């Protein structure tokens, strides 16, 4: 099985490459990534040059390039996206371009090379497309039948990409499957997202900026559990179906912050209360029953607090990686090697 993975130089994608190479000896991966600020080939320096991994520096908006690549592969796992909510509030344009138009470009390219619809396309999306849940109704969860109600420019662009993906299945009969996952954590996450930002700030002696009242809730899943679920959908999923992926592990941001402070041996005084994110979604929580009953998947690496402890330890042990990323030094190196975006 030869997979075309988009966005493989980012957080989830680089963990996906490593997972596939380790767990699926018969598989190979071509990673198409244009190396935005969050794409970093250093995330995959340990597999670079191996016989089952190929890196292609390019944009998913480049129809000729993606058409050529799709001829050589058996299936597509689409992860490339602009992924940070705060950035989408500052400038939504790259989100619409990469997330909506990028997804449409990939699907058009696949139609060109595969008119008989033999190749599967897994579109990796987010639980944020469903909007948010109230804090005072803990029994309410997102599932595959929850209506779409995205609230940020990021989640709207992901919702748009999901609709395009659905439409290409419905209209052309393409073998498209969509996954909607909750918040991931683990190694190689860009330190703009809350867990790596807070851990690395504390190592640097800086405070952690907690938005608003800190009561917003996220459902935390280890990235390896997410990638195992994506592979299950690729291998056993049904075309046209949607699958919700979650950790069944809800924590408020304040609880998360206290756990990180405790693991780092720091006190409450390191919390800096800052202005809330605009339109901040209150609560995300997933009901992953469909994945369990239909595909036999359940999270096995996300138990709290052990999973958080392992993630925190990774950033403590890999200071050179995140210092390089935070300082932007790696960008200069890769821009000379690959050219800028
Ligand atoms: P990330 O920002 O770490 O990585 C995104 C990667 O996509 C980067 O390597 C970037 O260079 C690449 N990319 C962006 N635009 C591109 C383009 N136009 N052409 C080629 N490459 C491009 O993001 P992530 O956290 O790894 O998220 C991966 C996917 O998973 C995204 O689709 C995201 O919406 C989804 N997702 C993320 C989470 C999470 O908690 N991080 C949860 C659910 C779903
Ligand atoms: O400095 C911060 N302070 C803070 O309180 C940051 C960066 C975040 N937060 C809060 C906002 C959220 O309630 O922490 C929570 C998590 O924030 P992020 O790490 O930015 O993640 P979130 O906005 O929940 O979105 C993530 O999960 C779903 C990913 O970035 C998305 O790509 C994914 O789709």
Summarize the SSE layout with pairings.
Layout: E1 2-6, H1 11-23, E2 28-33, E3 53-57, H2 63-71, E4 75-78, H3 85-90, H4 93-113, E5 120-126, H5 153-172, E6 175-181, E7 184-185, H6 194-203, E8 208-211, E9 217-219, E10 221-222, H7 223-236, E11 242-245, E12 250-252, H8 253-263, E13 271-274, H9 289-295, H10 306-317, H11 319-327, H12 329-338
Parallel strand pairs: 1-2, 1-4, 2-3, 4-5, 5-6, 6-11, 7-10, 8-13
Antiparallel strand pairs: 9-12
Helix pairs in contact: 1-7, 2-4, 4-5, 6-8
The CATH class assignment is Alpha Beta
Supply the number of helical segments. Answer: 12
- CATH domain topology: Rossmann fold
CA radius of gyration is 19 Å
Ions, cofactors and other bound molecules: nicotinamide-adenine-dinucleotide, thymidine-5'-diphospho-beta-D-xylose
Biggest β-sheet strands, sense, barrel: 7 strands, parallel
What structural class do helix, strand and pairing data support?
alpha/beta
Indicate how many domains the architecture comprises: 1
Give the proportion of residues in helices. Answer: 40-55%
Number of strands: 13
* Helix-strand string: EHEEHEHHEHEEHEEEHEEHEHHHH
């Amino acid at each position: 099985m030869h997979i075309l993975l988009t966005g493989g130089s980012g957080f989830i994608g680089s963990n996906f490459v490593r997972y596939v190479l380790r767990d699926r000896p018969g598989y190979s991966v071509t990673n198409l990534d244009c190396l935005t600020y969050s794409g970093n080939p250093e995330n995959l320096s340990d597999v670079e040059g191996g016989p089952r991994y190929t890196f292609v520096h390019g944009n998913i908006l480049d129809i000729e390039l993606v058409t050529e690549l799709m001829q050589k592969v058996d299936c597509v796992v689409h992860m490339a996206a602009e992924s940070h909510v705060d950035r989408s509030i500052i400038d939504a344009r790259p989100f619409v371009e990469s997330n909506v138009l990028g997804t449409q470009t990939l699907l058009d390219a696949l139609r060109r090379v595969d008119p008989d619809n033999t190749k599967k396309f897994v579109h990796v999306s987010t639980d944020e497309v469903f909007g948010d849940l109230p804090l005072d109704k803990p029994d309410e969860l997102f599932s595959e039948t929850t209506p779409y109600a995205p609230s940020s420019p990021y989640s709207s662009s992901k919702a748009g990409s999901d609709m395009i993906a659905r439409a290409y299945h419905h209209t052309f009969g393409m073998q498209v499957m969509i996954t909607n996952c909750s918040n991931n954590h683990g190694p190689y996450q860009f330190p703009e997202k809350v867990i790596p930002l807070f851990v690395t700030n504390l190592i640097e002696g800086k405070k952690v900026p907690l938005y608003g009242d800190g009561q917003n809730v996220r459902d935390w899943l280890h990235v390896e559990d997410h990638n195992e679920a994506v592979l299950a959908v690729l291998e056993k999923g049904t075309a046209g179906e949607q699958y919700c992926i979650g950790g069944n592990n809800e924590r408020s941001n304040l609880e998360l912050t206290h756990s990180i402070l405790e693991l780092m041996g720091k006190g409450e005084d390191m919390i800096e209360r800052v202005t809330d994110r605009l339109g901040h979604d209150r609560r995300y929580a997933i009901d992953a029953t469909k994945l369990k009953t239909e595909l036999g998947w359940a999270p096995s690496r996300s138990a709290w607090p052990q999973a958080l402890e392992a993630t925190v330890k990774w950033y403590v042990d890999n200071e050179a990686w995140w210092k390089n990323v935070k300082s932007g030094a790696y960008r200069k190196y890769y821009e000379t090697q690959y050219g800028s975006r």
